[in-house]
Design a protein that fits this description.
Butyryl-Coa Dehydrogenase, subunit A, domain 1; Butyryl-CoA Dehydrogenase, subunit A, domain 2; Butyryl-CoA Dehydrogenase, subunit A, domain 3; 3 domains; four-stranded antiparallel β-sheet; 53% helix; globular; binds flavin-adenine dinucleotide
Length: 380
């Protein structure tokens, strides 16, 4: 059976997310973009409404729903502000390795204080010398008695400066290369941790991006998630799931850019008529719509596979790369349709263009997604 309809529960969730995003996020999106202020109050309200950590198990204080629901909400949030969406989703990203690798006891210990109480977490994988090549991270975790001692530097960490809990990937056995890596749940106030905001960025300015330095940080051995050596696999399994949310955010940004373009094209008069009358503009609008509709289908399909635990890595890579490429293309066309006004900060479309760019870069660049896709295509 093939069914493209959303259930009543999914429609209700979409409507709730849309109302919240349009009433609470959209009106302040440009101000947050200008000031770079972190949206603490917005996230608190979103948490109260049950719009955060949707895929984390209910038993641990999460939403207990699937990736399809998470993608529906991500599209709505990103149509209002991609920066707030990044801030909102970073916690779920950080909790996913705990849910994937942690023992029942660890999940009950580490996840509820974040997911149930609406606190924040950060996913700490990237380092100055290790971005796409996750296997080359150098942060070390050395076991001493019933503790691990962590040393190293993580950077580009979303929520890094505001999180209460850090999920940290570190090398426990350098000889074993990527099979010698492990994940740790580390309270952010542990002595030896220094967190520094990384400064101005092109877009997603409502989200925090920080560098985190670990200097002789003592972490109880009980905070090792699962067993030693599974960290790299857990990081990859995390990305295989969470990157659909980036595709969904791409659909949201692109949708907002199209809506702004339609409105502008109907209002803007040139040559004695609205520019929407010109076929050159109509074709651009039609192309934007085609890309958005196909990107949403790609996202929903990937989420559907993930929720059924069917082979999904290929589909989520397509959804992430395509959804974010569409966001970039559609936002660029939206600026073009707005002409000179599109270039000015008073109009929202230049923000969409800046925000779309990051979607092509983080949680695995779109080149890395193409590597994942091609690997599947070329497999015997
Ligand atoms: C705002 C922001 C927030 C972020 N949040 C987080 C976070 O919360 N946690 C976290 O751990 N990380 C985070 N990141 C890091 C992000 O995931 C990395 O920036 C990304 O994975 C790319 O790594 P890099 O920047 O080191 O680029 P590089 O890996 O150095 O890549 C540079 C260029 O080379 C290309 N390239 C690299 N390898 C190949 C290849 N084999 N084939 C073809 N092309 C290739 C890349 O696609 C890219 O175009 C964030 C980054 C930003 C900017």
């Amino acid at each position: 059976m093939l069914d493209f309809s959303l259930s009543d529960e999914q429609k209700a969730l979409r409507d709730l997310a849309r109302e919240f995003a349009q009433n609470e996020i959209a009106p302040v999106a440009q101000q947050l973009d200008r000031t770079g202020e972190y949206p603490f109050e917005i996230l608190k309200k979103a948490h109260k409404l049950g719009l955060l950590n949707l895929t984390i198990g209910e038993a641990y204080g999460g939403g207990g729903v699937g990736w399809l629901e998470a993608c529906i909400v991500a599209e709505e949030f990103a149509a209002a502000c991609a920066g707030v969406t990044t801030a909102a989703n970073a916690t779920e990203l950080a909790l996913t390795p705990i849910e994937l690798a942690g023992s029942e006891e660890q999940k009950h210990k580490f996840i509820p204080p974040i997911a149930r109480d609406g606190s924040l977490a950060a996913f700490c994988v990237t380092e100055p010398g290790a971005g796409s090549d996750v296997a080359s991270i150098r942060t070390r975790a050395v076991k001493r008695g019933d503790e691990y001692i962590l040393n190293g530097t993580k950077h580009f960490i979303t929520n890094g400066d505001v999180a209460q809990l850090l999920s940290v990937l570190a090398v426990t056995d350098p000889e074993k290369k990527h099979r010698g890596m492990s994940f740790f749940a580390v309270p952010a106030d542990t002595p030896g941790i220094t967190r520094t905001h990384m400064g101005e960025k092109m877009g997603h300015r409502a989200s925090d991006t920080s560098e985190i330095v670990f200097e002789d940080v003592h972490v109880p051995a009980a905070n090792l998630l699962g067993s030693e050596g599974v960290g790299f696999k857990v990081a990859m399994e995390t990305f295989d799931r969470t990157r659909i949310g980036i595709g969904a955010a791409g659909v949201g940004v692109a949708r907002a850019a199209l809506e702004a373009s339609i409105k502008f094209a109907k209002e803007r008069q040139q040559f004695g008529q609205p520019i929407a009358n010109f076929q050159g503009i109509q074709f651009m609008l039609a192309d934007m719509a085609m890309k958005i509709e196909t990107a949403r289908l790609a996202v929903y399909y990937a989420a559907w596979l993930t929720d059924r635990n069917l082979a999904y890595a290929y589909a989520t890579a397509i959804a992430k790369a395509y959804g974010s490429d569409v966001a970039m293309q559609v936002a660029t066309d939206a600026v073009q349709i707005h002409g000179g006004y599109g270039y000015m900060a008073d109009y929202k479309v230049e923000k969409y263009m800046r925000d779309a760019k990051l979607l092509q870069i983080y949680e695995g660049t779109n080149q890395v997604q193409r590597i994942v896709i091609a690997r599947t295509l070329l497999k015997d």
